Amino acid sequence: MKKFLAMVAVALMAAVSVNAQSDEPKHEIGVSYGLGASAIIDVFGPKLSNAIFDSASGCDSEGDVQIGTIGVEYFYHLNNPRLAVGGILAFAHYGEDVVYKKDKVGERTRNYFTVMPAVKYDWVHKDNFALYSKLGAGVMMLSDKQTDTQTNKSETNSDLFFMWQASLLGIEAGSKNFRGFCEVGIGEQGIILAGVKYKF
Asked: Is the entire prediction scored with pTM above 0.90?
């Protein structure tokens, strides 16, 4: 009889454990805004060829307009709820005026579209709080448009680049299903980013 009761108790505990695991959200969708993305940082370094303005030596730029990175991400939590795999979509924009001898002669805009498969691991995993790290790597398409405002001539170039996001530390807090989050790292989503996510 004692063996039977022990077996029933073990079976009940196993059933409760399986049920608890099944209540764990498997999916999460997040939206974020980040600053300091590597794609935006590169505008302060060597620029792409400004072919449309090559004939006008001494051109400069001013009136920089930057839109930080807007990111959308999805993750699926595996049987180990700490580990999740998914993907990240990111968009960033940069614009500037081209100036020659203090007169505006053109405009330059850049749009950055990035797609990255990603993995995420929760170091601390609670119902309303988590500490995690995230790593993604993929492809970024850069579209660069230059317009000569005096002749209305424009030229568009595009190229593909390897891109990544390495968020060394992420913090999320809220309810079991709806949370705010903040991450610190480097890459296409930004050096620092924040947003909201929904788990279901």
From this structure: no
